Amino acid sequence: MMKYYSTRNRARHYTFRDAVVRGLADDGGLYMPEFIPKLDASFQDSAKHKSLAEIGLEVLKDYIGDEIPEAKFGDIVKDAFNFPAPVKHLYDNYYILELFHGPTFAFKDFGARFMARVLGYFVKDYEKELHILVATSGDTGSAVANGFYNVEGIRVHLLYPSGRVSELQEKQLTTYGGNVTAIEVDGSFDDCQKLVKQAFNDTEVREKLNISSANSINIARLLPQSLYYFSAINQIGNSAGVRFSVPSGNLGNLTAGIMAKKMGLPVKGFISATNKNDVFTKYINNGEFKPGLSERTISNAMDVGNPSNFERLMKMYDESHAEMIKDITSFTFSDNSTMEAIGEVYEKSGYIIDPHGAVGYLAAKEAKSGVILGTAHPAKFGGTIEGILNMKIELPEGLNAITSKKKKVVPLAANYSTFRDYLLSHK
Ligand SMILES: *Cc1c(COP(=O)(O)O)cnc(C)c1O
Fold it and tell me: Which residues pair with 270 in a beta bridge?
């Protein structure tokens, strides 16, 4: 059966359940599977006639073992991945894998919907409520809120940086109510992330409350992100030459892609695309990892100064920079180039690409081809795009409905003792 270890201590082992319920290990490390299971060589062929949910079942089952009964796990997967992820051709050798057809219109629905259902299964016989703490720069929060909304036994606390998410993103975060509380932090995304980390390192808080995370640091968020790489290759067919271009922030998507490669995904390599928050690009290019503060850009879900999944990536390459750069290249782009790219893609293909995808497109151009991960629906960034393309971007129905709902938040200073008091008031 699959066991998990902490990236800070390879010697200790945890069950999948422990890893999912705890989120972050006691030593501050991230959970990783002991080994990456290999898929049967026949998988890629036999996947030809399979749905996303069926691919999901194959890709995920060895990570879960018998910790969830097979039939139940089948239902979880079917229910979590009930929307399509089509590959569309842009022009020449450029393709986009559209990952934004879930309920919150960004790829984070994959991880959040899966994790919510897995955790819902694990906590159903707990006495105390489970508190999920999430720091979000936008899309994580809405995916988590949607995934967990009304899941019994679970209460969600979303911390987001005041004034640094789009109006629409804010509506997606703050209009649920019920078991979902939105906390508007007077600070940056890094401040939000720090508050959550401090809570996890606070023994008294951990003793009094059952807490867990749902950021891309939770292993149940990460694992399901491998499956759409298989689905994409499956749709494109001839795969020998494919490179995926991954718009990167916390490096969850990239890490899941590397896991897919280690499972047997036939792929040439990965391109990590960053905005001016380029710590990872610098690491790939010069071997030095120097986390910093995040800076604001128009691809705001990638505004991360200290990408948390870096620790996991390092484990998969045995801490070797030389090994990592065999699989991964990385490029960084300014907001100006990103805006130009949105115009260029539209001009060449008629396709409206969102700012995150546009950074991915620019990185793919460095390799002269690529399958770009379309991480968000363009309508989520309508304001930016309308200014560039001079046209009206229609909101899809599901997004339109929330614009009239009322924002409900708990305001919070970026200060741990205040956050701690807030948390302890829930014990
Ligand atoms: C979260 C997010 C990213 C960054 O993904 P990571 O897995 O954190 O690297 C890119 N684009 C969008 C739209 C996102 O929401």
Answer: 244, 328
